[in-house]
Structures are given as C-alpha cells and as structure tokens.
Task: structure prediction
Amino acid sequence: MSYRYGYYMNREYDVKGEEEEEEEDDKVMITEEAAAGEELQNHPLPSRRSQMNERAKYISLRLKHKERKKLHILEASLVVSQYTDRVDVVKTDDLTQKEKTKLLSTKLQDIAAILTGLLIASDYKVGQELLQEKDFKQHESFFQKIFEVGRRHKIMNPEKMRTEYGKLIYLLQDAISDPIKDQLGFNVKTGIRTVYAFLKARNCLQLLDDPDIMIATEEILPSSNKQRWEIQKDIKKKEKIVKAMCSKYSNSSIKEEEIKFCLYSLTDNNSFLNSNAEPIKKMLAFLTTFFKQNTFDEGYSLEIHAGVNGARLSHTHEKQYLYVYQSLTLWLEIMENMFMLWSLAEEDLLSESTPPVLTNTGQGIHRQQPAPQVLRAMHAILAKVQKSCEWVGSSVVHLGDHNVPNALMFIDKYTQVPRILVPIVTAVEGVNKLSQQPTTSRYVDKAFGGARKLQKDILVDFFRYGFDGSGADNFIDAGSCIDGRLTSAWNWCSQLETKLFYPVFLLSGFTGFDGDFQK
Result:
C-alpha cells in the first residue's frame, strides 16, 4: 500500500453543473490570466521552497474531470499528428520565396485540420458547423482551453507527453505567427492557470500565508522510522487542518471545495519535488558519506586525467570532489525551481516578438530561438550556487545556440536528471538488500568484496567518469560548461553495460534510463 497521500488525480471537485461552470470559468480566466502575466514579469529569482505565496505563482492547478476529457482528445490528436514532420524539414535560409509561401500554406492547412478535428471529437455537431462555416474565432475559448489543459498537464507531470508536448509547442508557435493568426482570426495562446492566479481572482491570497499551509500541503511518505499507525496519524492530522482551512477561508467568492482543490494542487507540487529533488539529495549524501574532500582511501581517488578513459578534463581528487558537489547542488537548485523555469520557458517559446528559425544545429533541423527569461533565471540560480561553494570549471550556459536551440530543449535536458540518478540511487541502496539474501550475498562478497566496497565502486566510477567532460568531441559541446556536465552524465549512462557492476543494476530492477515514452 502506498502512503503518498494527496497525489490522487481522479478526484472531482465540480460543485456546479458543467455548462454553468464553463461560463464562470470563461469570466474568471480573464482575471486569472492578467494576474499570471503580472507575476511572470515580476518573478523573484530564485525561490527554493520559499514562502508558499511565492511558489504558488508557478504551481499549476490540477486538472478537473471535465478538463481530463479535453486532455484525452488533445493527446490522441497529437499522437497521430505528423505536423512537425511536414513543416520542420528545411532550413529557413535555404527556402525561396515561393517555397516559403508553400510552407506557410501547409502550416495553415494542417493547423486548421487539427483545430477542426479537436472540435469534432469534442462535439460532433458543432464540429460539422465549423467545417461548413470555417469560423474558427467563434470557438476561440474552446481552442485556448484545450491547449492550456495540455500544457498545464505536462508542467505538472514532466514524465507524460514526452513526444506530444514538443508537437504541441511547435504547433502553437506557428499558430501565433502573424500570417496564421490573421487567417484564424484569434490567438490560441493563453496563460497557464496557477494556484496564485486562481486565489487572487477570488480575493483569497491570505490562504497562502496561513501558518498551517506547509502541513496542509505536505506529502505523507512512507518512512522506515515510522510505523503504519504513525503514518495514518499524520494523514488524519493533515485532513483535519485542510478541513479547518477550507472552513476558515471560504466566502461568497470561493467555496470550500475550491480551496481544497488549491491545497491539493500545492500538494502535487510537493510530490513533484520529493520525487525529482530527492535523488539529487541522496547523491549528495553519498558523496559526502563515502568520500572526503581532502583525503581518500587507496584506489578510491576521484582524480581524472584528460585522455584517460575518455575524460576531457584533468582534476585532482579535491578539485573533482568540488566539481561533482557543485554540479549536483546546481541540479538540485534547478529542480527546486523547475516550475518557475517551465513557466518562463513557455513565455520564451511562445513569444511573438522572437519567433523561432529553422536551423541545422549539427544534430538535425531544429527551431532555434532566444530564451532571455530562462537565461536570466539560470544566471540567478547559478550565482546562488556559486556563492554557496567554491566554483570549479566554466560558467557558460548554452541556450538559444546550436547546443541547446531553444527553451524546450533546455527543459527537456534537465527533466532527465532524475532519470539518470534514480537507477543509480536504487542500485546503491539495493546493495544492502542483496548482501542479506542467501542467493545473492555470496555473489556480492566474492565478485566485489562486500556490500560497502561494491557501493563505493559504483559511486567512484560515476563521480569520476560521469563528470569528466566527455560526451562530445570538443570543449564547446561538452567540457565543464553548465550543460556539458549533464552531457557527461548521459555519456556515462550509455556505457553502463560495459561496467563490471552492471549485473547489480539488473538485480535492482534496472530496465533503462529513458523511461516509457508512451505513458
């Protein structure tokens, strides 16, 4: 039984009829969007689990039941869509004027077909009318909502829509371009619904300053230090506080069910942080527990030399220890601020003032686009980390160039961090269990010299060669730059099958670093 309390996505808090709620949502969303836009322009950088009234500005509302119907329609249409395959094929600079006109016509036809299909799937009769009248503006609210639902779902669940989200963003980029926007008669872009904007529109921001807000939104997790009855006690305590807060802050503008809905949305964010930041914290704990900065056991120095075992950097043990420590600390800061970074990334991606340009980056045709808001946030996060520890290596952040063409690639790059670290953490923690089982304890002792030695063998290999500047053939694409650190870690993952301890990963349940693209 799982005790991950508060992360249930099948709850329904629809307290009114669907049609009545739709009409009210249309009115309130205008106010919410204005509030959300205002906050994005005045975002604090960065905010690591700071006060809830700051975090809530970037925490999306969880989906309601009726919104999930829209999500299923959108996902199904994106799965079968070949939009990007048809339009992202040739560099923009290589096109003649005639070819550009033809490409624009293709984009418009495909976008119109997708919009029509979405409406038909949602309401066949209304969709048929759209086919006849071609009046897309009449259904502006529907299209804005269905795309916003998809974007919000992805932000809340980074492991979902791994291929569909890219198609969605690129389709929206083209749909908000002036020629296509003029033909459609409306702008499909709208702001993401956040907890802060939802509460602000209903004059209930004081909820976020309540002294019990952290308890009401915490995720109750299983713990080896707690028995089952203690966990149940924590759950009941949380339920009692949630109920009291709903009663305290409900008024004519916001009902108890809506307050509970906001609290559970905040809990979802805590669940995300626990799932994605916890592996990084554990790796930092492994580093400081198994290794020391100034001394090392024989055979367990973290020292690396350029040209040896694929390394492109030369670091002493002390320097490599600091390099690994600061890299993990940086990843932790990025993960803690991921919702903020994602909000800013969407602002950059869907910017009408800086449209993307199709460019051959050396890794195929990509949409290259500046990302000033994400870049500014990254520099602020980087500055915070640099103040907390001695800095080793380059401080260059690649964004909007051939390495990281746009903010979508940036976000996708850093959502990989938990996928890299979770299997390593699982394998290291699982060694103790293997050493206690009669069928595997002999293997651990004979092949690796015991459980602790095996754990240290895995960690020393990762801390050396997962942070050695490898993964590319030059220092611009890899090396010690901010993005190159992650490139090196991925390169280590690609070589895991060659490691002597690879069977230990398999025994711990390892199937791959990439996860499932179909979920």
Summary: Strands lie at 357-360, 365-368. The longest strand covers residues 357-360. Confidence is low (pLDDT under 50) at residues 1-20.
